[in-house]
Write a structure and sequence with these properties.
mainly alpha, 46% helix, two-stranded antiparallel sheet, three-stranded antiparallel beta sheet
Length: 200
């Protein structure tokens, strides 16, 4: 686990440098040729499935990559990801989550099944548990085949699983058996589906 934790620190430092450079290059490209920059970002969006969702227009997500708020948010997520404790082959970290009924429970109570979300939703930053539960209703309305729970407002589960901004896991018998890449670039629901099909 020590080497995996060390890799988290190293990859976070590399990713931070990449994102700062990427943001800088995009700003220069946009200054020189806005249309080329848009084409480049759209091509990049194809790799992360953003262009496949008809609810996401380029104007909603494309320009964010060249904003300072992108760097600020990504930096915060990377900083929090340094606290992750979930590694393939290791014990699945336990923490409190909140059910849709508002009941606090342990994430370990859901280890009998793995789960995966297959769509992104445009939900703003939550300022209260009520807002977070309300946002989770969007997922509940899609009638997933798994329980829906939310993290507490201190994001302890998100931090332990290094899931900022998003990451997919498969947990089985209290162990992490699959750990997806950090989203949006490493986020691959298809990869999780294939992994789960192999487990059958």
């Amino acid at each position: 686990m020590f080497l995996q934790k060390l890799m988290v620190y190293f990859s976070t430092a590399c990713l931070f440098c990449f994102l700062v450079g990427f943001n800088f290059v995009l700003r220069i490209m946009h200054f020189m040729s806005p249309s080329f920059t848009k084409k480049y970002i759209l091509r990049m969006g194809e790799k992360i499935t953003m262009t496949q969702n008809p609810k996401f227009k380029y104007e909603d997500w494309g320009p964010t990559f060249k904003s300072s708020s992108f760097i600020k948010t990504a930096s915060r997520h990377m900083w929090l990801s340094l606290g992750q404790e979930a590694f393939v082959g290791g014990e699945a970290p336990d923490s409190l989550v909140v059910t849709m009924e508002g009941e606090k429970t342990s994430i370990c109570k859901f280890f009998k099944d793995g789960w995966a979300f297959t769509n992104n939703f445009d939900i703003s930053q939550h300022r209260s548990l009520e807002e977070r539960l309300s946002a989770a209703q969007i997922v509940v309305q899609k009638e997933p085949l798994c329980p829906v729970v939310v993290d507490e407002m201190n994001d302890v589960t998100t931090i332990k699983y290094g899931a900022l901004p998003e990451r997919l896991y498969v947990l089985q018998a209290g162990k992490v058996v699959y750990k997806g890449g950090m989203g949006p670039w490493g986020y691959s629901p298809l990869e999780v589906r294939l992994f789960l099909e192999k487990m059958k």
